[in-house]
């Protein structure tokens, strides 16, 4: 186990995120990719008096993708790798655990979405588990989904569509191929 790596006082989410990014800058060979600038969040657990930090692995898109389901026709220039990135745990200002799920080589490939989020939404609803229900509170996120094919890891650019229904009561998550 050991004493952990001391990062000093961590009082705010930004402190925990910056400590994690500093660790990655000092040890880039741990993750095998050049950038750790993905979306980050930190959560405090008051029961344990500890911080959990997540930094997503992101890939750049070769062409912007339209998230027209967002309400403001947001143009996306990157996508997160599903469950890819770096996780860290801090207690008393010390990093005592971390985990990495980075996939090297993804940034050298061309990634382009052929469909927008609203088209993906209708595919998710029509082909999903509750096609005859009213889907409310929908959201879309462009992701790179890793999955095994005949024992070899492959990746697909997908829209992650989340919806909610009242009848049947449910929260639904669908992955729709964006290519």
Structural features, described:
The chain is mainly β and 179 residues long. The chain is built from 2 helices and 8 strands. Strand 7 and strand 8 form a beta hairpin.
Write a brief caption for the model.
This protein is mainly beta and 179 residues long. Helices cover 14% and strands 51% of the residues.
Cα Rg = 19 Å
Number of strands: 8
- Main β sheet profile: 8 strands, mixed
Q: What do the pLDDT scores average to? A: 92
Task: Pick out its properties.
51% strand; mainly beta; 179 residues
Structural topology:
Elements: E1 5-6, H1 13-26, E2 40-45, E3 50-67, E4 74-91, E5 94-101, H2 117-127, E6 135-149, E7 152-166, E8 169-177
Parallel strand pairs: 4-6
Antiparallel strand pairs: 1-5, 2-3, 3-4, 4-5, 6-7, 7-8
